[in-house]
Q: What sequence folds into this?
């Protein structure tokens, strides 16, 4: 037997070298290109120091193409549930009973629901990560019975978790007010950003040809991201710069038709998903977002790290918090401390904002303020807070030496 060093919360415990270290499971649907995957990647890369007292396992619910390389851990498990909640629960529960972790950490709604059900009746703690403003996210994607069920499940199950980590204050409020999660169980931890790495990536040469002057928008091409409204606002505003849209998704064909019908093929460019978007963002005159639903938008935050001015809609939730505005208190277009913000679904506001971005002095001022703002979200500080939350649930469940 030997004593391990204290972890981030000061807990000490003994480990018998003949046995495994206490286990943590990290559960996510798949390794896609989204913000949840990016944050989980950063959390797992800290296992060598912040999580060194634990044996960490990655659990993927679905067998899907992987868009990033996660760090090597003690174990990796693919449950091949392929989008099925029932299979996710059954297979995760079997794995939890087999590995007997002290805690399970999950991200995204299906993984969160599966984690609560899979840990029920076991000694494992459940730590859920909610990345979206859940009520508006579900309302934007589902209708009728499906929407009712998907609202009911988090309302019934999230409260049974030990901790629910919300990515923004708006997400936290939604969990408490709409989904009846006890406020004492909800903790807000914003996204982490490696400022030096993002800045270095922005200095690299873009892998695609770009217009001499352009605005950039980033996101999956789905209705919730508001690209249809953004393209229409761009048509009405007729700014001097082109519009480069990074991302792919099911709305691509519809958006391409809209661009063609407006005669904007040379001005609005759908360039698809780029593994390394930072060189493109860093050279843009500004980043624009017309999204209707966010949690804590990475695209906006990363553009701010790179000193780009931002125009965003005041959707639930995240943009207002990042830009220093009071959510819901927005006129036609408002200059917040760190960017321009307009009401959600406000076409005239987007038009006015796009026209204001023609002002060089305004762009320089907002870009400098944005860069300074992001000093509050350094990866080192945020990831340490994540591990504090994980260990606070895991450590009390460690086995007591005989």
A:
């Amino acid at each position: 037997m030997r004593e391990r060093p204290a972890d981030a919360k000061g807990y000490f415990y003994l480990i018998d070298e003949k046995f495994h270290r206490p286990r943590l499971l990290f559960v996510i649907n798949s390794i896609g290109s989204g913000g949840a995957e990016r944050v989980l990647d950063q959390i797992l890369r800290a296992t060598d120091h912040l999580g060194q007292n634990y044996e960490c396992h990655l659990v993927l619910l679905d067998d899907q193409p992987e868009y990033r390389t996660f760090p090597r851990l003690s174990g990796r498990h693919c449950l091949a549930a392929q989008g099925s909640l029932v299979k996710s629960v059954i297979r995760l529960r079997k794995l939890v009973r087999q590995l007997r972790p002290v805690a399970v950490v999950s991200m995204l709604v299906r993984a969160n629901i599966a984690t609560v059900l899979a840990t029920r009746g076991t000694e494992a703690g459940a730590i859920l990560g909610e990345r979206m403003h859940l009520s508006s996210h579900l309302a934007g994607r589902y209708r009728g019975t499906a929407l009712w069920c998907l609202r009911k499940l988090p309302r019934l199950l999230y409260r049974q978790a030990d901790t629910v980590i919300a990515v923004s204050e708006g997400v936290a409020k939604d969990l408490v007010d709409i989904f009846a999660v006890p406020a004492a169980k909800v903790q807000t931890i914003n996204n982490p950003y490696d400022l030096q790495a993002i800045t270095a990536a922005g200095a690299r040469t873009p892998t695609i040809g770009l217009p001499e002057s352009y605005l950039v928008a980033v996101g999956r091409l789905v209705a919730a991201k508001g690209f249809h409204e953004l393209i229409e606002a761009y048509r009405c505003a007729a700014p001097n710069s082109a519009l480069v849209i990074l991302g792919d998704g099911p709305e691509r064909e519809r958006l391409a038709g809209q661009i063609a019908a407006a005669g904007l093929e040379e001005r609005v460019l759908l360039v698809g998903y780029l593994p390394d978007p930072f060189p493109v963002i860093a050279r843009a005159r500004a980043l624009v977002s017309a999204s209707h639903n966010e949690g804590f938008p990475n695209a906006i935050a990363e553009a701010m790290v790179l000193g780009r001015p931002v125009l965003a809609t005041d959707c639930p939730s995240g943009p207002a918090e990042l830009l220093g505005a009071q959510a819901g208190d927005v006129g036609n277009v408002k200059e917040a401390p760190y960017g321009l913000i307009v009401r959600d679904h406000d076409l005239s506001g987007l038009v006015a904002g796009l026209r204001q971005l023609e002002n060089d002095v305004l762009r320089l001022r907002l870009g400098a303020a944005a860069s300074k703002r992001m000093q509050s979200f350094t990866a080192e500080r945020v990831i340490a807070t994540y591990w504090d939350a994980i260990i606070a649930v895991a450590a009390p469940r460690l086995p007591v030496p005989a």
In short: The domain at 2-192+378-397 is CATH 3.40.50.2000 (Rossmann fold). The longest strand covers residues 23-28.
